[in-house]
What does this fold into?
Amino acid sequence: MSLAHDKFIAAQQQLNAARIKLDRQTTALLIIDMQEYFLNPASPLGRFGESQTPGLRHYFLEQATTVVLPNLCRLLEFFRTQHLRVIHATAASELPDGQDWIPILHRTNAVARERIGEAVFPARTDPWARIVGPLTPAPEEVIINKTTYSAFTATSLEGLLRNLRIETLVLGGVVTNRCVETTARDAADRGYQVIVLADASATYSPEMQEATLLSLQGAYGYVRRTEDVMALLQ
It folds into this structure.
């Protein structure tokens, strides 16, 4: 480990340690892509990943189901009990044929069709695109569907947040270094205070999780645990 890296970590940790002020009325929980096709190893995405690199998703699935999901359930229940805003983001195509995916995901679907005979990123009406049962949205909770990594790009999310007077976003879900990170960076650029949940997000390795959270904290927002956020909102 270089001295430069040590100094960077120290600087980031100092920024991340700053005191956070949360207004209950202007804070929203944004749960990202907690869908069946991400969390179920039997999904086309799961089978495609296994065909490419056996064992690729084992760590991710373990973290997502035994750590991320329970913590998001706790936080979701807390937000509901406290009558705070909850928004769900999903990743799925609006068109049945998937032609509206961004090019990189469209290409992945094409490769998957050749390899396993079906697309890995589903349409919004596909059962694989459903939010997992324990996090099923309540009637008053908005679902934002995206065909991109960021929950802001080509969606009505920003208009919704402005209308609801939201100033702080608490982000959790999957995958940390893809949709969660991209949404966090976009939110910071748009002037929102961002809190990324260290124990309610997951990616494909502990090293990637640590690197992503280290990169985000300070420059783009704060990294906190589920208990920290609940304490701040009490």
User: Anything to note?
Assistant: The radius of gyration is 18 Å.
